[in-house]
Amino acid sequence: AIVRHYKFNVVTKNATRLCSTKPIVTINGKFPGPTIYAREDDNVLIKVVNHVKYNVSIHWHGVKQLRTGWADGPAYITQCPIQPGQAYVYNFTLTGQRGTLWWHAHILWLRATVHGALVILPKLGVPYPFPKPHTEQVIVLGEWWKSDTEAIINEALKSGLAPNISDAHTINGLPGPGQGCGSQDGFSLEVQPKKTYLLRIINAALNEELFFKIANHQLTVVEVDATYVKPFKTDTIVIAPGQTTNVLLETKQKLGNYLIAASPFMDVPIIVDNKTAIATLHYSNTLGSTITSLTSLPPKNATPIANTFTDSLRSLNSKKYPANVPLKIDHKLLFTVSLGINPCPTCVNNSRVVADFNNVTFVMPKTALLQAHFFKIKGVFSDDFPGNPPVVYNFTGTQLTNFGTTKGTRLYRLAYNSTVELVLQDTGMITPENHPIHLHGFNFFVVGSGKGNFDSKNDVKKFNLVDPVERNTVGVPAGGWTAIRFRADNPGVWFMHCHLEIHTTWGLKMAFVVDNGKGPNESLLPPPSDLPKC
Ligand code: C2O
After folding, report:
1. What is the pLDDT of residues 39-73, one digit of tens each?
2. pTM of the entire structure?
3. Ligand 1 site: residues with CB under 6 angstroms?
């Protein structure tokens, strides 16, 4: 293992998309931002220098941050933001992790343009558990707004209404042709025939799950969220914001240009979004520019296609990469996941949309929670987050009468090394929606999921405790539930939230506090001296 140094300058840069130009916040002037390369067990130091007018913090999505919660990044959870003119060095070790992860700003809506890939190669000399690819390619899926994203979210918060949806989807920063502005060039992936390529696909979009497809080519899924899976073939992948998926692409054609598309998936399409990002797979030596298009694009509400994909995901669970699913459970938790409506006298309809776990709309503190925990600062948070729904829920497919939520900065406390089973139940208070829930500080096993109400007697019997997929972000199906298990072996304060940015903004977030253990390597390390102050 070695030490790797990176420098991230947060700078404003003009960017032109959809025939209009606007200044965007970037890292080193790039959109998507620079890729970080490292190997398993390397120590990575990234100096972030803030040259813009906004407060900034960067999260290394999926990095476990064993005992180094100070480097996790969510603003006001593990650190105060880096203020304009200030700098902070994120210092962490990629212990036992390899695969595709990513990084993004973790404050307000800055991650719209501040994000990039984090590629962790296996240790030197350790092969992939699949055929060695000829070469590798990072594919970042994103969204583009013509107007300023910070202005959009501030306006939405003021009015209490939903924000505008994006104007385009992007593949490696480019919308490609057909999204409302002439024929703009899209991203082109150059390949040679009869080779295997590893695509590292990241969904960095703010608010939308996506289908990803390449005309006339099958994909073999080999990894999700930086954990190896049992390889399977598919022509469509489904990827939620926050998730990463590695696929092998075999170039079985000889020549030609083939369409690559990323289009929205919405279980219940409540908003109109028909934007499809377009790129091309270009075989070298192809002279013409004719593009073979897709025979079909999945419709927005193609839930069966999405389900087939997620149901196919299994941990590799080999001798070398075993799935260590916790079998004895210390904390059995059930959180409802929903949107609600709270009164708001200054809002447009005298009400605002809120979101919650267990009817608690999370309130962001003014002091970072990890500091409050470490230095025992009173009055910043309470540790009484309800482990079960405080009000009766019954998902019936129709709206409930109880839309109300309470507000609080409430955390759930876990003893070091205790085991957790968490059922996430969508209760669709306004309308059922998919929620990609992301947990910081841990990977978890997805042991089950289903439609309707979770049945604690019978559904438990059907849990997969052998080779469930291990990941850091999982979709809770519309009008259904997902059950996860993890071991709380990482002391600190760990954020959990919906990775649809609008739902996080509305309060669909909470945090776990994990106490120190007794052993010498079971405590949170002290904060670095340059940790930003609030
Ligand atoms: Cu990728 Cu808390 O986020």
Report:
1. 999 999 999 999 999 999 999 999 999 999 999 99
2. 0.97
3. 59, 61, 74, 104, 106, 242, 438, 440, 495, 497, 499
